[in-house]
Design goal:
Blueprint: H1 2-16, H2 19-25, H3 28-39, E1 45-52, E2 55-62, E3 78-79, H4 84-97, E4 119-120, E5 123-124, H5 127-131, H6 158-167, H7 182-195, H8 200-209, H9 223-227, E6 233-234, E7 237-238, H10 248-251, E8 254-255, H11 257-268, H12 276-283, E9 288-290, E10 293-295, E11 300-304, E12 307-315, E13 320-326, E14 332-337, H13 344-351, H14 364-375, H15 377-390, H16 399-411, H17 415-428, H18 433-445, H19 449-462, H20 467-475
Length: about 475
Amino acid sequence: MKKYIIILNLFLWAVHFNGNAQNQVFTEELKKNVKQRVEKGINTGIVIGVVTANGTSFYSCGVKSLETKEPVDEYSIFEIGSITKTFTGILLANEVIKGELSLNTPLQNLLPEGIKAPCRNGNSIKLFHLANHSSSLPRTPNNFAITEPENKYANLTVQQIYEFINTYELSYDIGTKFNYSNLGMGLLGNVLADKNNTSYEELMLENIANPLGMDNTRISLTPEMRKNLAKGHRIGVEVKNWDLPGMAGAGAIRSTAVDMLKYLAANMGIVKSKLYPAMQLSHKYSGSSIGDMTLGLGWVTMTVEGKEILWHNGGTGGYMSFMGFTKDGERGVVVLSNSAFMPDDIGIHLLSPKAKLRNPKPSIANELNKLIENEGIDSAIRVYTELKKNNAYDYNFSREELNKLGYRYLLKGKMREALAIFKINLEANPKDWNVYDSYAEALLKNNEKDKAVYYYKKSVELNPQNTNGLEELRKLGVKIEQKEKQD
């Protein structure tokens, strides 16, 4: 094993400083686009890595922190968020390859004594259902208290995950629909760790990171990793790192561009490893799909400009990331950012150059946040109305940006500000179910139960598969007949 790791590190080291290769990979158009994102405050820092059979190339722009101004590079540590799910899928596939488990192993077989997996119409959740988001479990559990708003999952334990599923009633048949579930993938990571009498982090290190020489891929930051940490940012403000002790397998890993290219090289077969059969199994279609995209075990496959791409992205409180590779193994890409703006288009463009780069606009949320902090919510709403009327093309007014801002104040317990932001978002996006759901959540937290019920109902009318809304209504004593989502 040591010999293998040395060969892998030499491979990456030898090609890292190939300047001509970098110039060919990163066009002036792309570098200009990335620089503009940083200059406009859309992204604080961006690091891009590309791997092919000929080697690796990196391009970095921006800083680790708006305070220190230290530049990011390929050794900077980022939270990779839901890219972690591909690691969890490979860990499951590895158990299957070893003959320890089957993809059809019932979840119940791996649960602690006294915990019962939810069933529906006589069918049980299998392990592959957890890995491809078809388990019928909700996105997250709701049986824990958020005591640290910027690190909201820090208090969620593995035991609470088990307690949640022990009493949860599935709202639709298992295996019939795609419903993205951090809970499901976190649960999968937990039961795999329990089976091996270890923690999720140790299981990942033993089976993936250590064999591949990924020395800076961990959940718990080493002193060296902490020194190289790129601080997360949201709405132009530095935020805390996330901890996910109860759902580590859903999104807890931190890593660098250098390490992620080692991971991609192994998945692409450029560097052979004992894990390759498990990796190949994790890439295969597993029976779940969303639109034109199909799901493997953690991996998503889509076709862009005639090219099949396997990918996943990730997002935590202050980070966004993308990782993918072409199915033919010609190229792999990772894009890491320490700000809450998705860099997917950069990664997809590098994998399929005909795919266009976006020219994103500065977020209206950043501007409103400054105004709220300095002049108050009334001034911010007044400026928002003026800007939307007179400068509609100068800012990103999307519901996602306003939702980020609303949740910033909701989690800080500043209800007047949160409700005002969610309300203008709802007025601007009256057909978006998620906006109603967010507004209802804020109303409920403000002890306005009747209004919360009204807006949860509106959310579920627009999206009958809104499991969060259905669950909240159930807890509020309101029964809703579930229907198919309207187009």
